[in-house]
């Protein structure tokens, strides 16, 4: 569950409160005028949205922001190269604590942002307003590795007009998705009935929701649990949905391809990130014919994948103080209020309850459905995407390979999960 440990959360909030008292009332946004910082970004919706305001940051602070933007996988490769070299050429980077947080923290790659957030932030920064669960998820061994930027998780987008035309009801249980997809395929053979991630390193983000709703878990008694009955059922269901009802070349699909396919009206059900909502709705074609809900519950209930991107400062930055000015500007209540109106789900309750945001939601029913689904993610979510170990990123490769082996027909479910368990247990043993 995405819920904070009470003592930990209380300690953070107490620290934040004392820090707020200690903040200088004459906080100077021009304190680092003339400095240059480099931001390594990936081209996800948050980065695209915030960088539209880059000129405002530079005008406010006098700091020059140099931006290097890549596709997500390329961004990760670039970051690993820079960090392994202990280079100072990157000051700020986007990070997923649920993915690489434990690994990067163990390597000492993150600057601790807690002293900055509690002692060197503008008086209106409102650090204590962040979701305590997201703050905790970004904290490892007392080090705040990043400041929350959003809250997100995969949701089921579906075409209400096609469902109505085909006389199909939305699935209310995980086991019914295949039945619904089959009916849609027969009714609309020229459309993709169901789409989700198939790219190996990206797949666990969506597959994990299937696993947890099926009642499965990645580990049990210190060992890989992918070959549990629940794990095998989840692999079989996910792989068969993509094989029988997914788009051609689905093994190459991540968020970009899913969004394009659905936005262009070529898929009927799309299980993809809530963070893609603004991109899906771009152009307005899907505003009137789309509904959004969490993945239906399975035998294990409803346990949606819930994560959030964070903004981090490199431990090797030569300009960490100037970098912090960008971090706090980009994650401020003011900026998050602006981004919320562009469909970036805010990680502060105060922003979510802002009258302007509420008015924006009220303009379109689909926006209200999106927000309701996000609230379910916040209340019931788990951030377990892949194995809860330092080598989490590598564990995701083995999960993706197992599902793809079944999807491509090169292995049975038993063979695929057994091969994955062997590799994953060896990985766990190295911890």
How does this model look, in words?
Helix 9 runs parallel beside helix 11, helix 11 crosses helix 19 (392-407) and helix 19 runs antiparallel to helix 20. It is built from 20 helices and 13 strands. The radius of gyration is 22 Å and the shape is globular. The strands form four sheets. The chain has a five-stranded mixed beta sheet with strand order 2-1-3-13-6. A four-stranded mixed beta sheet has the order 8-11-7-12. The chain has a two-stranded antiparallel sheet with strand order 4-5. 48% of the residues lie in helices and 12% in strands. The chain has two domains: 6-151 and 307-365, Periplasmic binding protein-like II (D-Maltodextrin-Binding Protein, domain 2), CATH 3.40.190.10; 160-306 and 368-429, D-Maltodextrin-Binding Protein, domain 2, CATH 3.40.190. A hairpin with a 2-residue loop joins strand 9 and strand 10. The chain has helices spanning 6-22, 45-50, 54-61, 72-84, 97-107, 114-119, 132-137, 160-166, 177-187, 204-213, 229-245, 255-263, 277-280, 320-330, 333-340, 349-352, 355-362, 365-380, 392-407, 413-429, and strands at 36-42, 64-70, 92-95, 139-140, 143-144, 147-148, 154-159, 192-195, 219-220, 223-224, 267-273, 290-293, 310-313. By secondary structure, it is α/β, with parallel strands linked by helices.
